Structure formats: structure tokens, C-alpha cells
Amino acid sequence: MARLSRGAAWARLLAAPGGGRGVRGLSASAPRATVMAAWVIDSYGPNEVLRFTENAPFPAIRYPNEVIVKVLSAGLNPIDLSMRGGYGAATLRMRRDPLNVNRSGGEFPLILGRDVSGVVMECGLSVTCFRPGDKVWAAVPPWKQGSLAEFVVLSGNEVSLKPGSLSHPEAAAVPYVASTAWSTLVNSAGLNKDNCSKKRVLIIGASGGVGTFAIQMVKAWGGHVTAVCSQNAEGLVRGLGADHVVDYATGAVDIKLKTLDKFDLILDSVGGDTERWAPGLLKPWAGARYITLVTPFLRNTDALGVADGMMQSALTIATKALKHFSKGVHYRWGFFAPSGPALDEVREMVDAGQSLGIVRCLYCPFSDGPAFISDKVGCGMWGLRVGLRPDAWGNPGSLAGRCLAALINGRGRCHRKYK
């Protein structure tokens, strides 16, 4: 029998029933473009490094557990602004290229955006939890290409089915901060729905993105929450379930908190001077933990290199852990961790009404996106969410017809359109 050429063999494979399944576990489909539209950066720097392109490389499934998601809404977080300026570049570069095969700067063009809500387009061979057409949401790890694009590729265990009670723009306001809150409470603090009942939890920076979701999770698990925030945010955090609120703007926060009963857990998203006095509010020799989200890890690796930076960070946390352990409390760092199962739990909370949804939408022309992003992301207790409308990419060459929808995480009620 004559041996088929590679092209003929490929054609026969696609023509066979279930053609192409040996490659990605997909049925044969019509050829698609190899490029897509995206906001990218070609170097680290100020907002001017952002540029729009319609020729960004189309993501490809390289591992059998990956899925390609068509982006319907995307979210930005303060870390995106930091990454635009080069924050964490050394560590993230090593995570993307552990063998250092690519030259320096091989991460460019880099796509930002840590939140995504959309529809599964393709699935790898080993993906069994999703199928094309599923509505999903996910937090995109910082070492991967982000969601400010038409499509994004993710591991199947980083993806979760979207809550049915949220629209895509609403859903795009949740995954990154919710995953960070869940990782901090579960992985660092050891809390979960089975052991949190009646635990006293102090959340410093309670009106921020992570703080607002931490309040809701602890309350859903039966815990007691004391929140530290500004007076302007008191209504927000009480509405989320906080049992007691302390206004930091009036000063002497540590003195006010010392009049309360001791805590089982402190979640600190502010850092700075709070680390000096906050651990003293914990129950001594009772397994209580102080968890801070403000860590020097990425700053150390940026300044000292990956190896020396990791050693310096290890020395720092070991020193602080020993210092606080001698006083009967545990000291930990909290980090973001991508997790589909965590988002599964958040989805159940949202659909059960235990987690408040999103807030108000602000609109600006898509072509004005970078300036709007620079002005709005990281503005106090509100976190910017940039939503790409389903038709946002539908008219190549016509930027005026595209929009960025900024979803602000909180409890606003108005929807205002900016021309």
C-alpha cells in the first residue's frame, strides 16, 4: 500500500468520523484565523506603552488539559497596572520560561487582564468538565497572556462554570479578587465552611476587592467579622455582612480594637504600620493567625534577581514567623492562586444569594481605554472591571464602535454612559 503524504494523511484524518479527535479531542471545524485583536504592551513603562493590535497571535492548545475561551468580558485589577510597569517581571519571566530558553523580553507582546468571563471555544483531549459553548469564568494567572483580547487559553482546572445569576460583565468583576480571598482564607489561614463557625475574624482594608469578598466568605461560613475601613465604606461592608466596623480615619485604630475580644484570624490587605500592632490582637497560643497580603516577594526578586530575591524573602518570612510564634501566634503571607474549584464554591455562593454581585457600569470609547484604565484602576475601594461587549471586536478598523465597560466592584446602583 502506498504511503500517504503528510498532507493527504491529515486530510483523511479530518474526513474520518470524529476527525481530529486524536489531536485535541475536537471534531473537525472550519479553518479559523491565526491572529486576533488585543491590547498589548511591547515593553514595560507608563500607560503609553499600551497599544491596540488586530494581529496578536491566536492562542493555541499545547497541553491536553487546556481550553480556549472566547472573551465576552474581561477584568482589570491594580496588579495589571503594576505589571505594565514591570512589577514582578523577573519571577513571572521565570515562571513562563523556567529553562530560560527565550531571550530577555520574550514575554512581549504581553496582554494584560486577570479576569475573564466568556464561552468555551475549544477543549483539550483530557478536558472532561467543559465542552464548547459552556459559559465560564476564570482568573488568569499573571504569568499567562491576559484577557484583554478576543481569546485566552487556560488550564481546565483554572476555569469554572459562570454563575447563572450574573451577566458576563458582572462575572468579570469577580474571579481574581475572589480567588485571592479564597486562597488566603483557605490555604494560608486554614479556614473553610466546616471549621469557621463562630471564629472571630478581623479584616483590615475591608472595603477593597479582596476584603469585600473575604467578608462574604467568612459570613457564609458562619464566622464573626470585624471590618476596618473608612466611614464612607461603612454602609458597604455592613451590607456585605460585617458585624462590627471600625473607622480608621478617626485614628487610634489599634486602641479601639484592643477594647474588643481577641481574634482567631487577622487578614491584612493594608500592611505598613499595621503589622507592628495587629498581631497583638490575636488569641495567644490558640492557633490564631495573622495573614498579610502585602509581601516583599516580587519586589525582592525584581531588585535582587530570582535566586537572591527568593532567599531574602525566605529569610524575611522565617524571621517574622519565629518572632510571632514566640508570642503564641502564627504569621503567614497570603497570595493569589488560580483555582477552578474555588470559583465553583464562589459560584454556589453567588447563585444562592450569599455573595453580593456587582455594581455599576461606566462606559468609555474603546479607543480611550488606556487613559481610562490609568485614571480608574486602583482608585480606593473601587476596583475597575473592563468588560468587552460581545460585539466589541466585530468591526475591524473601527475603534470608535468598540467600548470598554468598567464594572466597579461595590454596591452602586446607577449606570452612567460616557460618550
From TrEMBL:
Name the pathway.
Answer: Cofactor biosynthesis; ubiquinone biosynthesis
- Known catalysed reaction(s)? a 3-demethylubiquinone + NADPH + 2 H(+) = a 3-demethylubiquinol + NADP(+); 3-demethylubiquinone-10 + NADH + 2 H(+) = 3-demethylubiquinol-10 + NAD(+); a 3-demethylubiquinone + NADH + 2 H(+) = a 3-demethylubiquinol + NAD(+); 3-demethylubiquinone-10 + NADPH + 2 H(+) = 3-demethylubiquinol-10 + NADP(+)
Gene Ontology BP, a term:
nervous system development
Q: Does the keyword Nuclease apply?
A: no
**Start and end of every Enoyl reductase (ER) domain?**
45-330
What GO molecular function annotation could you give as one example from this UniProt entry?
oxidoreductase activity
Q: Does the keyword Isomerase apply?
A: no
Transmembrane annotation, as ranges = none
**Which CDD domains does the record associate with it?**
RTN4I1
Keyword annotations for this protein, in alphabetical order, are:
Membrane, Mitochondrion, Mitochondrion outer membrane, NADP, Neurogenesis, Nucleotide-binding, Oxidoreductase, Transit peptide, Ubiquinone biosynthesis
- Out of the domains of life, which is the source? Eukaryota
Q: Name one Pfam family in it.
A: ADH_zinc_N
Q: Where in the cell is it found?
A: Mitochondrion matrix; Mitochondrion outer membrane
GO (cellular component) term, any one: mitochondrial matrix
Name the family: Belongs to the zinc-containing alcohol dehydrogenase family. Quinone oxidoreductase subfamily.
Q: What is this protein called?
A: NAD(P)H oxidoreductase RTN4IP1, mitochondrial
Q: State the organism named in the record.
A: Scleropages formosus (Asian bonytongue)
State the taxonomy lineage: Eukaryota, Metazoa, Chordata, Craniata, Vertebrata
